Amino acid sequence: MSDAFYGLVHVLAAAGYLGLAWHAWRTLTSESGTGLTTDRWLLPLLSLAHGALLAHDVFGRGEFRFGFAFALSATLWLTVLILWLETFFVPLRMLYPIVLPAAALAAVLPLAFNGSVVGLGGGNPTAFRLHLLVAIFANSLLTIAALHALLMAALDRQLHARTAVSTPAAEGKLFRHAPSLLAMERLLFQLIGAGFLLLTATVISGVFFSEQLFGRALRFEHKTIFALAAWLVFGGLLLGRVGFGWRGRVALRWTLVGFMMLLLAYVGSRFVLEVVLGRG
Fold first, then answer.
1. In sequence order, what are the beta bridge partners of 3?
2. Which of 65, 69, 126, 134 is the least buried, fewest Cβ under 10 Å from its Cβ?
3. Is residue 146 within 8 Å of residue 256, measured between CB atoms?
4. Alpha carbon distance 100, 21 (integer Å)
5. At a CB cut-off of 8 Å and minimum separation 6, what does 253 contact?
6. What's this model's pTM, rounded to 2 decimal places?
7. What percent of the chain has pLDDT over 90?
8. Helix H segments across 116-219?
9. Would you give the end-to-end CA distance of the chain in angstroms?
C-alpha cells in the first residue's frame, strides 16, 4: 500500500485519540459523569491501529528503522494500553484528557521524523530488539508513574484548598472520579517498582552486553549517562520508601526528576541528533 494511505491512517488514529480525549473530558466534567463506557471498546481498537502503524513504520520497508519519534510513539502506545488496563481496577479515566492528546501527537510524529536504519555492526539483532522492547516497557511504566505523580499533586492541592473558589468547577467535577491519595500512592510505588526492575534489566544488558547487542564496546554517551542517572534516582526513591518511609511530596519530586532523566536518556538525545543537528 502507498505511503499516502498509511499517512492518512496515522492522521485518523490521531483524530480518534483526540476525539476520545474530548469525549472523556466532557463526560468526566458533566453533572452526571455518565457515558464513560465508550473507551472500553474504542480505545483498544485505536491502540491496535496505532500498534500496527508503528510496526509498519519500524519494519515495513524490509529494514529496521528507529529514531526518537518511533521511541516516543511506542512509549505512548504502551502507556495508553497500560492505562486502559488500569481503569478496570482503579478509576483513572481523568488521565485520558492528558494521555490521549500526547498519544495523538506521538502517532503522527513518524510521518515527519522517519528516523534512520539501525545498523548493529555485527551485534545480535534479536537480543537488540529484546533490549529495546524491555526499555520501552520500562519507559511506559515510568511514564504512567509520572502521570500518577502529577495527578496526586493536583489532588493534594485540591484537598489543601481552603475555599471552594480556589478550585475551578470543571476541575472539581473531574476529581470526583479520582481514587484516594493512599490508593494512588500504593499504585505509584507498584508502578515504580515494576518499571525499576525493567529499567535495571535494560541498564545491565546495555552496560555488560554492549558488544553482543551493538557490536561495539560501551560508550558513555548522553543516553547512557541519563539512563544511569534515572536508574539511580528511582532506585534511591525505592530505598527511601523502604528505609525512611518517603511518601507525599518527596516521593512525587523524586518520581518527576527520575522521569525527566529517563526522557532525556534516549528521546531527548535522539531529538537533538535528528532534529537540532540534522544527523541520523
1. none
2. 126
3. yes
4. 6
5. none
6. 0.86
7. 41
8. 125-159, 169-175, 181-208, 210-214
9. 26
